[in-house]
Design goal:
heterodimer; A: mainly alpha; 8 helices; 0% strand; globular; B: mainly alpha; two-stranded antiparallel sheet; 20 helices
Chain lengths: 223, 511
């Protein structure tokens, strides 16, 4: 350990960061404006990078710093920029459309958090790391991202849901295993970036073809 | 140049060339050459495996064993047929003015990236890189699915991208869990996600974590396989994609996704009690099998029909792998037979579509008069798909069935089965499963035969031109059909040996 800090401090810092991540997740779910949603996602990614950096500091594993820097470059800067462009291009000034309204959404998300904690409980009991509760929070973020993809109509909000899932996964990897091997992480970053680009292109095509990015209008294919 | 290098270099090189080249003739030639090179690469790798056993390469990043070679052979052979068939197919649509030469270059570029991602997935030793490559296949194929840019194909491509990305995100969570348990045993080393390492230290992995990981992985990659209830993208994507792409998706991509789950299954079987992963496989297998068989009865679109048949067959393969024993060999055989039969079926369906201008089963009549060769191919593929002898799928279904009847349940079973295991004896339970299997097979048989025979016989309407001249597309049908028959009647000794090695990979001796 590079500094003689109390090891509990690391654990607490990481828990704090994870909680901030979860908080931004709830903020995104509760958000009505699309561009604010994207901003909050950028903020969440920033917290994620900070979490990774804290883990890197306390475990003395420099490769996590690379992952943290990449998170900032890709998830807080590049992807939000792409999404903003998409929003501008498809001109969705209107508020986010809901399949499920905000208050029940938040209640469901709360339930998902409880679910995540109960699913990971047998693993947390084995706890060996500084980051015991983070795995549960990571799963919670993944589940909430999943929920958001179901509960929101606009293609852009579905992308945000997908990216939130990715953030949750990244937190899980950092928390439970101090990050994946570097080559795997590079691959995952690459995939996420390409996925965001492709979804952006799709949004354009949806707008051009259906004159809307409301995915509930995609009902041509049925039994 | 080693086989592995050839396999990994040819597709990306061809992808680059496709971006740069514009003349359709050259593009076809480049694709054909690249696919021939990958077949050569696969044969070279197979030869090395048969002579020297499993091996690692490139700093342990690449691992080759029986299962790898088995999937590689399926993949490259069908890739070659894709290259052969794409030419007449694209020529047809270019003549109609639907597509431009620029689109053809993009089509081939995406196809080669798709091939590269699949090759990388199969060769990767690390579960993490396996995941990256499988996600890569999704990204490469989504624009191939909406190649024709119709409204419906846009919807199909979007659905495919979103469902598969989400599904596969769950698989990544499973992979992360797997990694966390291995890091505890190994410490932080770059090889901690390598299958070879995981198997070596299986005794030190935590069964709780690995079991939880496997549930996420099975659901995740299961989406990609098209196992019910995550199958909803399959009929949309297969029906909207160009016929050669449908053949690749159904014949190869599904096989690669099954491969990904099998890799993880070997680890779980080594860590947890045997039967844990198997029971999950059987559960998902039966659900897919049954749902798809009944949906087969409802189909009015020829490509959707074959898509549901794919879901059904993946269900059967999952049941075989779940039952274990002779079922593993049967399931592998099933994957091979299905890949050949289904690609033949989609090639034939492509020909039908080009002539009739529709995929609607009700509007296709008298195929035997209109396109006799295509009709023959369609009948051969269908007979193979419903599992009639002498085709490979007959043998494999019988093996799966016998494995299912011989199952003994030990150790921990799936939670839902808890009540059943207490009250119902193994024999009764096996009998019930076998009976269910037979009934569902019968339904699938009826559904597929009824629909296809309706297209083949009857009198065609006068507007459709009758008779077909021999062309490039038919050479593919002959090649594909020939391989299908060979696989059923007289499987070459070499392939048999590869399959035995593959079985040993999936169920290592002693377990």
């Amino acid at each position: 350990m590079p500094l003689s800090l109390h090891p509990d401090l690391g654990s607490q810092l990481i828990n704090l960061c994870s909680m901030l991540l979860l908080l931004t997740t709830f903020a995104i779910v509760a958000q009505r404006r699309l561009s604010a949603c994207v901003d909050l996602f950028a903020l969440q990614s920033l917290f994620l990078a900070v979490t990774a950096a804290v883990v890197a500091w306390f475990t003395d594993s420099p490769h996590i710093y690379i992952a943290a820097l990449l998170t900032i470059a890709i998830k807080t800067v590049t992807i939000p920029m792409i999404l903003k462009k998409v929003i501008e291009r498809v001109n969705v000034k209107r508020e986010i459309e809901f399949v499920i309204n905000i208050p029940p959404s938040l209640l469901i998300c709360g339930a998902l958090v409880i679910l995540a904690f109960s699913v990971t409980e047998p693993i947390a009991k084995l706890g060996f790391l500084l980051t015991r509760d983070s795995l549960a929070i990571a799963l919670a973020i993944v589940l909430i991202g999943f929920f958001m993809m179901i509960a929101r109509k606009k293609a852009v909000t579905q992308i945000v849901g997908f990216l939130m899932m990715e953030n949750g996964l990244f937190l899980g990897a950092t928390a439970s295993a101090y990050g994946m091997p570097l080559i795997v992480e590079l691959g995952v970053f690459f995939d996420v970036l390409v996925a965001a680009l492709i979804i952006g292109v799709y949004t354009h095509r949806l707008q051009d073809t259906f004159d809307s990015v409301d995915t509930t209008k995609l009902t041509g294919l049925k039994e | 140049m080693s086989g592995v290098a050839l396999l990994l270099a040819a597709p990306p090189l061809a992808a680059l060339l496709s971006l740069w080249l514009r003349a359709p003739g050259t593009l076809h030639a480049v694709t054909l050459a690249a696919m021939a090179a990958t077949v050569g690469g696969a044969i070279a790798v197979a030869a090395r495996l048969l002579n020297g056993g499993p091996f690692l390469a490139y700093y342990d990043l690449v691992s080759v064993d029986g299962l790898t070679v088995f999937v590689l052979l399926i993949m490259t052979v069908i890739g070659l047929m894709f290259a052969l068939y794409s030419r007449p197919y694209l020529d047809h649509y270019m003549a109609l003015g639907v597509i431009t030469p620029k689109r053809i270059s993009r089509y081939y570029c995406l196809f080669h990236l798709f091939m590269f991602a699949m090759t990388a997935a199969v060769l990767a030793n690390s579960l993490g890189l396996l995941w990256v490559a499988i996600e890569g296949t999704t990204l490469a194929t989504t624009f191939l699915i909406n190649f024709f840019k119709r409204r419906e194909s846009l919807e199909a491509g979007w659905k495919y991208l979103i469902l598969c990305s989400v599904g596969i995100a769950l698989a990544l969570f499973g992979t992360v869990l797997m990694y966390s348990s291995s890091v505890r045993a190994l410490g932080e080393v770059s090889g901690a996600l390598n299958v070879t390492e995981l198997l070596r230290i299986a005794g030190q992995l935590d069964p709780q974590i690995v079991k939880l990981a496997f549930v996420f992985i099975l659901v995740g990659y299961g989406t990609k396989i098209g196992l019910a209830p995550m199958h909803t993208w399959v009929p949309d994507a297969y029906s909207e994609a160009p016929a050669p792409v449908s053949a690749m998706l159904a014949g190869v991509l599904e096989t690669v996704a099954v491969y990904a789950v099998l890799r993880c299954k070997t680890v779980v079987d080594a860590v947890a009690a045997p039967g844990y992963a198997g029971t999950l496989f059987i559960l998902f297998g039966f659900v897919s099998f049954a749902i798809a068989a009944f949906f087969l009865l409802l189909q009015r679109d020829v490509k959707r029909l074959f898509a549901y048949s794919s879901i059904e067959h993946m269900g059967i393969a999952a049941i075989g792998f779940g039952a274990g024993g002779v079922g593993t060999l049967g399931a592998l055989w099933h994957l091979l037979g299905h890949a050949l039969a289904k690609s033949l079926a989609f090639f034939a369906a492509g020909n039908v579509r080009m002539r009739f201008g529709t995929r609607e089963i009700g509007r296709i009549r008298g195929l035997i008069h209109v396109q006799p060769v295509t009709a023959l191919a369609l009948v051969v593929a269908t007979l193979a798909l419903v599992g009639l002898p002498p085709f490979a799928l007959f043998v494999s279904e019988v093996s799966v069935l016998s494995a299912l009847s011989a199952q003994v349940y030990t150790g921990d079973t799936f939670h839902l089965g808890h009540f059943l295991t207490i009250t119902i004896a193994d024999g009764v339970r096996n009998l019930a499963l076998v009976a269910l299997f037979l009934v569902v097979s019968l339904v699938a048989f009826g559904g597929l035969m009824y629909r296809v025979m309706g297209m083949v016989w009857g009198t065609p309407s006068d507007e459709i031109r009758q008779g077909e001249t021999w062309g490039r597309g038919h050479a593919v049908l002959a090649l594909s059909g020939g391989l299908l028959v060979i696989a059923g009647v007289m499987m070459p000794q070499v392939i048999h040996r590869v399959m035995e090695l593959a079985v040993m990979t999936v169920t290592p001796a002693g377990r």
